[in-house]
Amino acid sequence: MSEESQTFEAVRIAAPKYESPAPQAVAFLDVALITAIFILLSSSFVMAPGFGIDLGGEAISIPESLPDAPLDASAVNSSVSVLNVRGNSMIIFEGKIYSPESFAKEMKTYKGEGTLLLKLDKGVDSQTFLHICQLAKAAGFSRAQLAAKPAEY
């Protein structure tokens, strides 16, 4: 081989141009914002004015007076079941309508946990209220929240 055949040609390699990280940061912020919106819309916020009843002890503990502030978020467990009572004859629980007798049978087999939110109308007597609290305690609920709103004059 001669020296003439061994000549090399210079190869130019272009260095990559510097790209601004701004478009990548904007895309990340978009994804973070969309994720935050989905988290906020899928979570459940419970505003339960009224007063709480502790069902966990041997006796049902009913506070002596209504609190001035709404229920503390730490007092409500993550699991909340809603019970509507209209008069002394109609109980609405988990989309079904019960009589007091059929509701008592249902609660014997129901496995409850967390907080039971009680929405009672003004026609519910105290005997029915206490009976529902006893049934909720037997079903496994640790707390009941009696929903109440201030009277409008």
**What's the helical proportion of residues?**
25-40%
Q: Uncertain regions: pLDDT < 50 for 5+ in a row?
A: none
- What is the terminal-to-terminal distance? 111 Å
- How many individual β-strands? 6
| Average pLDDT reading | 76
Largest sheet: 6 strands, mixed
Characteristic key phrases:
153 residues; alpha/beta; six-stranded mixed β-sheet; 6 strands; 20% strand
Verbal overview:
The protein has 153 residues and is α/β, with parallel strands linked by helices. The chain is built from three helices and six strands; from the N terminus they run αββββαβαβ. It has helices at 22-42, 100-109, 126-139, and strands spanning 50-54, 80-86, 90-93, 96-98, 115-120, 143-147. The chain has a six-stranded mixed β-sheet. Strand 3 and strand 4 form a beta hairpin. The protein starts with 21 loop residues before the first helix and ends in a 6-residue tail after the last strand.
